[in-house]
Design a protein that fits this description.
There is one protein chain. This protein is α+β, with helices and mostly antiparallel strands. The chain contains five helices and six strands; from the N terminus they run H-E-E-H-E-E-H-E-E-H-H. Helices cover 28% and strands 13% of the residues. Strands 1-2 form a two-stranded antiparallel ribbon. Strands 3-4 form a two-stranded antiparallel ribbon. A two-stranded antiparallel sheet has the order 5-6.
Length: 149
């Protein structure tokens, strides 16, 4: 069980953004979840170095996977690890700020495994639609400068 102090440390460290899709927690109706980078079901711990802030969508889609399939290289690669990697080295935002684009094998595999763009759903029912509203409201995409989010 992760205590409230640890949860708040994880939330602050992530600047209140999902560490996978960068959705802002402040516009969610519920607090984000704490994700285990190495799931407890396969030996992961509750140590801070193994914890990430995750929106429910990403947490549920990640489940207990630690690797994914890169559609470009056809390789199985590790999923993005926000404790060891920098988001902007693996992902970029589309010009309209609605779509996350994986630019490395890890980025592409993570986008596919977590379905960060809801590509299986009509655009009107997807996270891309919500991101469009966030862009209009000036809340998205998040700045690379954590003080601005």
């Amino acid at each position: 069980m992760i205590d409230d102090v640890t949860k708040e440390i994880v939330r602050k460290r992530a600047n209140y953004l999902c560490e996978y899709c960068h959705s802002p927690e402040r516009i969610s109706t519920t607090r984000f979840t704490i994700d285990h980078l190495i799931p407890k079901s396969i030996g992961g711990s509750d140590e801070l170095s193994n914890l990430a802030l995750s929106c429910r969508r990403c947490n549920e889609r990640r489940y207990n996977f630690v690797a994914g399939y890169d559609p470009e290289t056809k390789a199985i690669v590790p999923l993005f690890n926000p404790r060891q990697q920098i988001w902007s080295e693996h992902f970029i935002w589309s010009a309209n700020g609605r779509t996350i684009i994986g630019v490395t094998p890890i980025g592409r595999a993570t986008c596919q495994r977590l379905d960060v763009n809801d590509e299986r759903y009509p655009e009107d029912d997807s996270i891309q639609s919500a991101r469009g509203y966030w862009v209009q409201a000036g809340l998205h995409p998040p700045s690379e400068d954590p003080k601005e989010n």
